[in-house]
Amino acid sequence: MAAPETVEKHTMAVLVDNEPGVLARVIGLFSGRGYNIESLTVAETDPKNKLSRITIVTSGTPMIIEQIKAQLNRIVPVHGVHDLTEEGPFVERELALIKVTGGAESRAETLRLADIFHARVVDTTPESYVFEMTGSTEKLDAFINLMEPLGVVDISRTGVAAISRGADKF
Amino acid sequence: MAVQPATHELSGAEMVIRALVDQGVDVVFGYPGGAVLPIYDALFKQNRLRHILVRHEQGAVHAAEGYARSSGKVGVVLVTSGPGATNAVTGLTDALMDSVPIVCLTGQVPTHLIGNDAFQEADTTGITRPCTKHNYLVKDVNDLARVIHEAFMIARTGRPGPVVVDLPKDMLFATGLYLPPETAPTRKSYRPQIKPPATRITGAAQLIMAAKKPLFYGGGGLINSGPRACALFSELVRLTGFPVTLTLMGLGAYPASDKQYLGLVGMHGTFESNNAMHDCDLMINIGARFDDRVTGKVAAFAPHSRKIHVDIDPSSINKNVGVDLAIVGDCAEVLAALIAELKAQVYKADPARIAPWWRQIETWRKRDCLRYVKSDTIIKPQYAIERLYALTRDRDVFITTEVGQHQMWAAQLFKFDKPFHWMTSGGLGTMGYGLPAAMGVQLAHPDALVVDIAGEASILMNIQEMSTVCQYRLPVKVFILNNQYMGMVRQWQELLHGGRYSESYTAALPDFVKLAEAFGAVGLRAEKPGEVDRIINEMIAVDRPVIVDVQVDPKENCFPMIPSGAAHNEMLLGPEDKQTSGPVSEEGMVLV
Ligand SMILES: Cc1cc2nc3c(=O)[nH]c(=O)nc-3n(C[C@H](O)[C@H](O)[C@H](O)COP(=O)(O)OP(=O)(O)OC[C@H]3O[C@@H](n4cnc5c(N)ncnc54)[C@H](O)[C@@H]3O)c2cc1C
Ligand SMILES: Cc1ncc(C[n+]2csc(CCOP(=O)(O)OP(=O)(O)O)c2C)c(N)n1
Ligand SMILES: [Mg+2]
Fold it and tell me: Residues of chain A with pLDDT > 70: what percent?
């Protein structure tokens, strides 16, 4: 098997027991073995069975991606690893809160751009806005880039949450 | 301790003992301290478990490794919090790298003090997370028994490895309900794949039937899997008539004195093994992990071969070397299925098809790559090992080693015809492994001859365990090939760093004979080749611990050697080879 050297981006859903140390195991695996984490989110999604879902966006050659999945599966509290990128179409969403403090002259332009991107105003003062925006990582990046010259002072992003399209679980 | 009904409330410390007994443990290697005093108190009150008091916690883990690897059981370690736990880390890492089943119980400060930088507090689960297969911090006494049972299950199943259970001191005093192993719930998320998929077996059988230049490459997974896997492996090798090579961790999985065996593979492997690896058209890897010490330069590794890889751990597959047919499963299950499939296909070995391949292999074998220049005046290290083998071969002999040239000579020259008789630190390469490991082996096999083939530098790393060996009257033999150098380091400095022997000479070695005597053991010394046999026979005859100081040629190097970054067919066969093959590549220089 000749592994092409092309680096691919993959989004994975990892179902884990919600117990102390589980996130450290996952993160330690990535840092210890030198894998990339572009984004990581975690929250309990199945309280009845005490299961959390970790969504990881990572990148690597096909051989590395295969290794990452195998290594994740080796962690004892990991129930399953789903490579959403490989398993079929999926939706990916990220939420960002963006604080913009432009001068009076740019406030109208700020609001106009936010409107185009369907960003919601969640806080306003005479000097500032906080926008909430949900979308793909790329869409968020595009919005933030456009807003930058208008005085972005702070950004908070959740990282990616993802789920497969259709009726299948994951 | 009287066996109490399961419904009775026990203290955490009593539960620990009870759980170990229920897991079939007979020996615990440990060292006390404040955080584990309640367990030591419970130990005092019972007689089912034997506690071996080591002299350093690293020694406890290596002893448990030797015990485990020679017996197929889980090795058990008990240490205190803080320094007790951190001292165990090297041993745990060693066990992880070599897939040795260990359960290590560590004391911890009481739960309400965790995080306060309390006396002898260390973040043990944090520190050991990357060097264990799994670890636990027990925060509820009613979880304690389940956790210990689960720890044993995880340590011994799938790809074996070390598991740490961190026990805060208040958990040991608290009382709760004890759960016996059979009632403890199992872990849903943990499901090692034991049975191989049938389609892969048919595929493998087809490749085997078509091969013209095949080679079996057996590894430590065969040892991990157990006696059945080793027996089935030998059966398959004989059924096919194919040549077989073994890794350092696999030695003994196939009888070394059999003519289908080509010897060790890899950096210090034989000329015939490495050339066969390079030229084969089908490589059948059973339980080996394509370690860099075996593959050399990956880009030039067995370039014309199709590869079958059998491993219980999916992460071993396609990690270093891409393979054509991966079979995830337990070696024994895969081998049984493969033999059954070949028989169902009415497969008969076809010696004519592989005859040219064997002829080629015989020409490589004729190079007699392990030969060395014999001497009447100075003891060659290879000679000492050959004599040790010759004079002990009729006995049940277990060999452990330290790390260095002596380890490689032992691997090359001592012929293991049975599995579980060879204990060495392969993956981590831990100097100081051999003596405590020998101690563990001797406890598992009280009547056997157990010899640690050592280097004079390595042995000093855990020499304190001589005190343990003497306390328990374990007749362990330490056979030091004393070349006064960290020989393996000296060899690399000679080959890679222009002979600048920076810090690889030990200028003030102890007198090992007197050192043995100081511990209460017997000390012997051989200085001339003519004394070697007598000293070995004397060592065997004494029913006490012995240190033998064999003063060997300080300048001898270990060959064959594949220099770092080189391919299998670029092997150095001896000192005369050095000049012709040119310097090590820049790429090779940075490799370990
Ligand atoms: C100084 C020095 C020099 C060395 N030189 C060499 C050398 O020349 N040649 C050499 O071979 N090594 C050498 N080594 C050792 C080397 O570093 C590795 O430890 C060794 O090659 C690994 O052996 P292995 O591939 O058999 O794998 P192991 O480390 O034994 O791993 C076993 C594999 O089998 C799998 N497995 C476990 N249980 C099962 C099961 N039940 N069923 C199926 N699969 C299972 C595991 O998942 C793993 O992939 C040297 C070490 C030192 C310290
Ligand atoms: C704990 C540890 N430290 C350092 C090393 C690096 N190392 C590998 S072999 C070796 C020298 C071993 O010398 P000795 O025990 O005398 O064995 P020899 O090679 O001379 O047979 C050293 C320092 C190691 N493997 N382990
Ligand atoms: Mg030495």
Answer: 98
